[in-house]
Structure formats: structure tokens, C-alpha cells
Amino acid sequence: MKLDVIKLDGGNAGSIDLDEALFGLEPRADILHRVVRWQRAKAQAGTHSVLGKSDVSYSTKKIYRQKGTGGARHGSKKAPIFRHGGVYKGPTPRSHAHDLPKKFRALGLRHALSAKAKAGELIILDTAALAEAKTAQLAKVAKELGWKRVLIIDGADLNENFVKAARNIETIDVLPSIGANVYDILKRDQLVITKAGVEALEARLK
Fold first, then answer.
1. Which Pfam families match (predicted)?
2. How many CB atoms are closer than 10 A to CB 9?
3. What are residue 134's DSSP bridge partners?
4. Band of the pLDDT at 106, cuts 50, 70, 90?
5. Are residues 38 and 58 in the same domain?
6. Are 132 and 119 members of one domain?
7. What percent of the chain is helix, strand and coil (3-state, nearest 5)?
8. Is there a single domain that holds both residue 9 and residue 62?
């Protein structure tokens, strides 16, 4: 697969041959769904917590005598049926993470890259570097290039000025190649990868 390479000023920087094993697959929604679900579950805090019957602060004295009241028998005001009582089988802090094989996660990333390539939402950039960390300058470049909601993946080392300029632009995310993941790729309208990023991804996923 061959794609044109562009510069930040909109000029042409030649073309690049992309590996079909990374960018030429037929995207499968079931694989992407499983990987995204694994990512979101792993990121879930799992800190939800409620007070059970044994956690509620209340007297342990029997609330009224066992017999002769004409009502139900009760021994504790902490019971879930009473107001301010404990919650029965409520949520407790736990991890929502589940296992997913490493090879399957890599396969999901290949399918995410292929999905963007097939949809025509993949852009190859020569380099993601700025002489000055100017947010207005990068915002102008993005507007001229027609970037709306983009994820930019660079090589192992990010240009500090570029990262600082993109930090205050809500519609631009910048990641090193090692941070490339299925969820971030799919949630953005366009995927921009630098030539260094392409080389790093090919080395990582081969």
C-alpha cells in the first residue's frame, strides 16, 4: 500500500510504502470491540463502595421485644429493610480488569490501523516538529490541513515544542509510538502518523 507523505505546511514530501500486514487487513468489528472493552475495563477505577449491615454505625440493641408486638420479629436496626440500614450485596471496591492475550491485543491494533486506512482517514506526516511552542500556530496548521479531531502518533521521541503547542488544543492528541492503542485511534476522526511513527509501529507489531 502506497500513501503520499505531507509536510506541516501542506507541501508534498514524497510517498511511503505501508506494510499490508498492518494497514491492509479487512477490519473486524468483533476484534476491535474485544480490545476496546479490555482497555476500558482495565481503566475503570472500581472504587465504588457502600455500607453493608456490618458497616453501618448504629446500636446493636434489640429494637423491641421478640413477642407481643403484633409485628415482624427484628433484632437490628441495621437491616437493609430499615431506613439508614446497610445495603444488601452492594458494590465493593474491586478490579474490573480481565485478561486478553498479548497477541490478540497486537492484532486489534493492526485492525485499528487498517480500519483508518480503509476509511481514508489515515494521513502520513513527514515530521511533527515546530520551531516554537505556539498553540495558535499549530491550530492554524490543523485548520489549513483540514484536521478536525486527530490523533498524531510519532516515533519514540516526541518534539517538545509540538507537544506543548498541542496541549491546549482539545481536538489534537499526540502519542509516542509505544502509546498507540486501539481506543484512542478509533475515537478520533483522523489518524496522523509520522514517518518515524510508521517505522516504530512496524518494528513493534512485526
1. Ribosomal_L4
2. 10
3. none
4. very high
5. no
6. yes
7. 35, 15, 50
8. no
Q: Residue 6: which CATH number?
A: 3.40.1370.10
Q: How far apart are CA 76 and CA 200, in angstroms?
A: 64
**Structural domain boundaries enclosing 197:** 2-45+98-205
Angle subtended at Cα 126 by Cα 10 and Cα 26, rounded to the nearest 5 degrees = 100
pTM summary value? 0.84
Mean pLDDT on 124-148 = 94
Mean pLDDT estimate for the chain:
94
| pLDDT above 90: residue 60 | no
Q: In this structure, what is the dihedral angle of CA atoms 180, 185, 188, 193, given to the nearest 10 degrees?
A: 60
Same domain, yes or no: 84 and 168: no
Q: Show which of 70, 90, 110 is a domain's final residue.
A: 90
Helix (H) or strand (E) holding 142: helix 135-145
pLDDT digits (tens, 9 = 90+) for 61-77: 999 999 999 999 999 99
**pLDDT surpassing 90 at residue 10:** no
How far apart are alpha carbons 93 and 162 in whole angstroms? 39
Q: Are 32 and 108 in contact (CB under 8 A)?
A: yes
**Residue-level pLDDT at 158:** 94
116 lies in the same domain as 38: yes
